[in-house]
């Protein structure tokens, strides 16, 4: 049965939802001409390629791996021939290798594919790693590391993030409706092997169909509760949804697991259920494709490594009018400088904007209105942090807990002077890190 947690007040902002694709069932993208699979699609160390030019590969075959803890393998999303191995610069600036595969159109499945054998926590975590799963709703944190928290006896609560609070994006919402049973089965698997008693699925209250579907699917499990949350950004941020769903506060420098909580994205946990049943690793991604110049907004299932430009063309995008492309939402997404940029594991949306919507507003002087303080979900003082960063005052930045900033962008969004407050906070965090390393 769903319950409301509205009594827990959330700072933040109310945004236009623009959820044009929420009632559109997912469609499959036709086979791309080529896929480019970077060896770094997760937070941590890059993989090393396990194939070379000219090799023939099959769907689901492991083509990249690494022995480091913070790494997950990369698998072929198509069958075909390895055309080349090339150097690739990711959107964030990291340089890694990428495997380019030209599909043969057969989509022959690798003989390696089989449901994993899971008998205990250790074999469960091994299976999670082999699936290639990195968090599908954020920075691509390796799932086996998050689920492998050493002090497992401290864990008592699993929070499933199905809030999806940014404008346009509906990929997680479609997961809730199209694969409801997988969501519940994935939750039950995590609860079983990590011995967690309680699970909360956090869904914003403007998604009644998802709440109803999840409620019905979880009706037979008293350890799973659907929580209705305020439809307010950034409801889906990790520390925010932990507080609104459970009432627990994760302090600066602490992990959710330190407070007995694990957080998983709803699409991640549903994928995990499918992997445990089929053995097919992480090779495709549902994307919401939308924006002012996209003539046919859709939710599209896309092989990993597909060029973003090809996805936009499939959705009948006015390519001449495109002035900005985002991977992710308009609040926390990142700009794509090249339409040939491939779709990767933690990419949940592709948005395209015209000149009018891509213009950078003119910045003026701060008027000390305090709006940035009022909306910050972490109770920070963005204007004061900007001043401290500009003066390179490390002590002030530390005292005002700049590291709590999660780059939600509420401060920049609400600022009447259009100050780059969220960007300054990220620069400030990098500055503090540099100072500590000296």
Name a few traits of the molecule.
14 helices, alpha/beta, Rossmann fold, 438 residues, five-stranded parallel sheet
Structural summary, described in words:
- This protein is of the alpha/beta class and 438 residues long.
- Among the domains are: 4-22 and 116-278, 3-Layer(aba) Sandwich (Rossmann fold), CATH 3.40.50.11540; 371-437, no CATH class.
- Helices cover 28% and strands 19% of the residues.
- The chain has helices at residues 121-130, 143-147, 171-178, 180-194, 208-217, 238-246, 266-278, 308-314, 355-358, 371-375, 382-390, 394-399, 410-414, 421-437, and strands spanning 3-4, 27-28, 35-38, 48-49, 56-57, 62-65, 74-75, 80-89, 95-103, 157-161, 198-204, 224-229, 261-265, 284-290, 298-303, 324-327, 334-335, 349-353.
- The strands form 4 sheets. It has a 6-stranded mixed β-sheet with strand order 2-15-14-18-16-17. Strands 1-12-11-10-13 form a 5-stranded parallel β-sheet, with helices on both faces. Strands 3-9-8-5 form a 4-stranded antiparallel β-sheet, with no helix packed on it.
- Helix 3 runs parallel beside helix 5.
- The N and C termini lie far apart (53 Å).
- The relative contact order is 0.15.
């Amino acid at each position: 049965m769903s319950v409301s947690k509205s009594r827990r007040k959330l700072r933040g902002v109310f945004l236009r939802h623009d959820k044009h694709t929420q009632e559109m069932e997912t469609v499959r993208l036709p086979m791309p001409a080529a896929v480019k699979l970077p060896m770094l699609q997760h937070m941590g160390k890059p993989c090393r390629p396990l194939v070379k030019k000219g090799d023939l590969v099959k769907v689901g075959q492991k083509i990249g791996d690494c022995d480091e803890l913070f790494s997950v393998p990369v698998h072929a999303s198509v069958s075909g021939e390895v055309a080349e191995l090339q150097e690739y610069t990711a959107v964030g600036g990291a340089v890694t290798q990428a495997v380019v595969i030209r599909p043969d159109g057969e989509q022959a499945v690798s003989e390696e594919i089989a449901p994993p054998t899971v008998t205990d926590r250790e074999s469960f975590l091994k299976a999670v790693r082999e699936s290639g799963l990195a968090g599908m709703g954020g920075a691509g944190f390796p799932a086996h590391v998050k689920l492998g928290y050493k002090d497992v006896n401290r864990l008592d609560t699993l929070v499933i993030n199905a809030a999806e609070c940014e404008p346009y994006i509906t990929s997680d919402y479609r997961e809730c409706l199209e694969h409801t049973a997988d969501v519940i089965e994935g939750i039950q698997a995590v609860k079983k092997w990590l011995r967690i008693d309680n699970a909360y699925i956090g869904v914003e209250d403007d998604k009644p169909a998802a709440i109803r579907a999840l409620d019905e699917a979880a009706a037979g499990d008293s350890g799973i509760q659907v929580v209705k949350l305020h439809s307010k950004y950034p409801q889906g941020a990790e520390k925010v949804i932990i507080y609104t769903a459970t009432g627990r506060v994760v302090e600066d420098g602490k992990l959710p697991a330190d407070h007995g909580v694990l957080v998983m994205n709803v699409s991640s946990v549903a994928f995990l259920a499918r992997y445990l049943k089929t053995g097919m690793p992480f090779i495709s991604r549902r994307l919401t494709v939308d924006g002012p110049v996209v003539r046919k907004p859709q939710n599209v299932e896309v092989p990993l490594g597909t060029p973003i430009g090809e996805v936009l063309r499939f959705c009948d995008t006015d390519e001449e009018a495109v002035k900005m492309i985002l991977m992710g939402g308009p609040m926390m997404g990142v700009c794509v400088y090249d339409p040939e940029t491939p779709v990767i594991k933690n990419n949940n949306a592709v948005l395209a904007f015209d000149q009018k919507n891509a213009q950078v507003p003119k910045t003026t002087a701060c008027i000390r209105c305090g709006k940035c303080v009022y909306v910050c979900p972490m109770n920070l003082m963005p204007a004061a942090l900007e001043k401290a960063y500009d003066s390179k005052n490390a002590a002030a930045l530390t005292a005002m807990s700049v590291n709590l900033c999660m780059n939600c962008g509420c401060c920049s969004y609400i600022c009447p002077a259009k100050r780059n407050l969220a960007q300054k906070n990220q620069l400030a965090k990098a500055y503090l890190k540099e100072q500590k390393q000296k």
